[in-house]
């Protein structure tokens, strides 16, 4: 059995930013890899949760979310390296984020995805997220889907 660890951070340190920049460059589905600078622009002075997933000590995935307001938390960006998929990392990070957001007093988690990311969409719907809006694109695969989940 593989050793899987999820590490949680509520601050973007230099080390965490470097880890995210490195892993995001290995995830082809992302529009672009994040840089240390782009992460700081997005997350500095922002209440956030950054999750790093490790398999056998190797960085395998990440998930970042931040506060929209006192009641809503936004699941912004994440992914799992292709070499580590099918291990349940994305679902584990999603569940961790949901529990953390609930403990922090948030009432709703919001997320966006694209129609082409079937695995992500299936995971969200299976975990009680509801599609609230569709932003059409020229290619239906690129339609943006807005989803949310009410937290207990």
Report on this structure.
- It contains 4 helices and 7 strands, in the order βααβββαβαββ.
- It is of the alpha+beta class and 152 residues long.
- The protein has one domain (4-150): Gcn5-related N-acetyltransferase (GNAT) (Aminopeptidase).
- The protein has a 7-stranded mixed beta sheet with strand order 1-2-3-4-5-7-6, with helices on both faces.
- It is globular and about 35 Å long.
- The mean pLDDT is 95.
CATH topology name: Aminopeptidase
The average pLDDT score comes to: 95
Q: How many helical elements?
A: 4
The biggest beta sheet is recorded as: 7 strands, mixed
**Coarse structural class:** alpha+beta
Percent range for β-strand residues: 25-35%
CATH architecture: 3-Layer(aba) Sandwich
The N- to C-terminal Cα distance equals 33 Å
User: What's the helical proportion of residues?
Assistant: 25-40%
Describe the protein's topology.
Elements: E1 4-9, H1 14-24, H2 36-43, E2 48-55, E3 58-67, E4 72-80, H3 89-103, E5 108-114, H4 118-126, E6 130-135, E7 144-150
Parallel strand pairs: 4-5
Antiparallel strand pairs: 1-2, 2-3, 3-4, 5-7, 6-7
Which keywords apply here?
152 residues, alpha+beta, Aminopeptidase, 7 strands, 28% helix, globular
Give a short summary of the structure.
By secondary structure, this protein is α+β, with helices and mostly antiparallel strands.
